[in-house]
Amino acid sequence: MNLESPKVTVAKSPQELYDFLTNVENFEKLMPESISKFEVLEKGKFLFALKGMPEIILKLKESTPPNQVVLGAASDKLPFTLTGNIQELSAGKSEAQLVFDGDFNPMMGMMIKGPIGKFINTLAENMSKL
Fold it and tell me: Which InterPro entries does the annotation name (predicted)?
């Protein structure tokens, strides 16, 4: 299952946005209002929960400065990645898009497609407000 957020404009250079996203503590600032838990577990790894959803642990899997940050599920039960793609628009301005890619059975995919789509759209929208 592949979901993409709309592309958003961020008032930061690609390097600034890259630095922001690779520091996982900053994801708390991007989370939707429905967040019920956020905790940094170790460098590059955090746990979060949205109301009515199970806790999810994400960790920094790979990154390509200053254009890409890849977070992945720490558990193999729900294998997915969340990739932040960053492009320079002009000096001090970037365009960012989040891409969710998960390997789920069709039933699970149907159940989570709506909430996950809404979640990545909110992250992207909040990124545009930075």
Answer: START-like_dom_sf
